[in-house]
């Protein structure tokens, strides 16, 4: 077993202590109410304290750690200090740590973050968590993969009020901010009564004390023109817009360029603030507006022109969802900006100066695609219980993969007079189907979901299917409870149903872990392709029960007609 390397953090007299919400844990002498899911491998609290871990010394591939039941009605930040240790690199099935939020009453967990990069030291992840009214749990899933000597450890979990980008630099983890190393100029922690630089300030801004902390960069070791130091924030994980404020001091003898950027995942920089060059040897407030409907990093960049360029100090970063006071713009709200045009134009309006403008229209669905995008579902999953097959097979698996398996395809199937002309999602995307010409009469293909968590009450499974062709066979949907050898038939259709996509809707209940199986059985001729698309799992009973009445040109069976 690989020994986990515990990074000993430099112990500074950090005087600030952030307010911690329930669910925070340092794993010193207890797990703070975190419990292993007994269905999987156990997490083990280290006898000497400091971390909880799982490794390959136990038989199994997956370990799940559940937090106590939590409820946070305000925006909060989860900071996770973790380590993944492996003996091999570049595996097709790597060791991975996932963090989910499990909301009360939902059978699917919402994935917030995932990491697979091994490290010989502790790493930090920062995740924004929006305010929510329902109770929830944090779910930490360790997947050990193919490595026979892998381990995953969690050193600390901190849940604090506010945004992850907020920081007063009073804690050792520095809120997940990191310095982009440069041989000559770098950001350092200042304060704490440590006299290690000519640019040490008498007081920080947070505590107005010599024991408080801040970040600084100076020009002592500058060797080249425009030497650059960058301090980089954790990447935002959800859409944000508003005002970022911070305090800074600047002393210069020979030109300093102090700039604030946001950088997206493709590496594109956008400047949102720059100092005017005025010397500020007292703490000064700066504010910058930004809109980021996508993940970004905030970068504080300082460029020096000479070794006598001076220094820049930074403290007390704070984000507000309201634009800065000198702006009149409205905060970006994704909910207000969203519209499916089913009822009206929502908050959109038209400028008709250059033409007649846009018109709302209703288009009937056909065999190629649905009329609008909304009722055909979104291409990207809107939540974890949805699969459109646009990016792959989601969490569905097959016992075997050969010519007689389920296949992912776009466009028309190869055999004429059977199968769909296109997918259901967009008409030009992907779906799953069986190619009857590759199968024998009565041969089966089975597509199995990942293990689903049982909940009390009803659950609703919806999907779209196409059973077109004179020799079409059978499409079954089964539920398989974990540990049971028998499967329960939930739904069945037999024979040709329609040239178009039809909607299947199943309401069922299960309070234990289970899987859903889509089974297609080849019919009497090669014209018996069967296809499925847009599978959605939802908590609660099915609402539109009238959609269960599907008009077809062939024979179908209701649940009441099926003998279990």
TrEMBL record:
Keywords: Signal. Residues 1-17 form the signal peptide. Residues 23-166, 165-326, 337-385, 385-544 form the MAM domain. One of its GO terms (cellular component) is membrane. This is MAM domain-containing protein 2 isoform X3. The gene is MAMDC2.
